[in-house]
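User: What would this chain look like folded?
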Amino acid sequence: MVQMVNAAFTGGGVTTVGLLGALSKVKMEFKGYSGASIGGLNAICLAAEKTPEEVRDFLADNVEEFCKAVKGNFSIQKKVDEFLNYQLFSDLPKECLVSITPLRPNFPNLITRENSEGLTCGKVAALTATLPGLFLPGFVKLNGKRSLVLDGGITFNPPLTVSGVNVLFTFEREGKKPSNMPWEVRKREQEEQADHIVKIYTQYGTLGKREDVLAVYEEGKETAKILR
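Assistant: Here's the prediction, encoded as structure tokens.
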């Protein structure tokens, strides 16, 4: 039996576009995608069978809108829905897992094709990219329950499939020492559970402009290393 190969993307704002650059160099066929925050947006668009270059250009055209406080989250939903023709998350042609951080106990921290209950791809992308301090919490109904949610990168970054092979796409900022913040420690622990790791090395931060998106994509292609 052939195992499903899943590409998992960590979150990291503009930096995450570099993971698309790395993906464009990895000659593998992926049957599923997963991600947190903007990594989740990557996963959604790729599961809708957009190419890495198409996702890069979409982000470059909209990054400044997406980085606006409060308004950016609404722009993500609107623009992703337009980009993917208002496709329902449940109708994505490939498997997709996107993480969220619910503010209600015993609430799902993954949105799947099975539990998305009529959510559009744009709505799911906006929910996983609800960066605290920049956007207001999102609101979603899953499995008959409702909850406010925050960015998926806080607690489940990156989400990995339970079965199959997980190829993780992640990054390291040049010159930055590893952080001991709880979500960063949790991220490193989760990364170690991946079957294979592709890491890029970058100079970019979380927010940026069009030229940053294009530059970090090329940086991802140039610096990507398969660590295992």
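The CA atoms of residues 7 and 27 lie 12 Å apart. If you want, I can go into more detail on any region.
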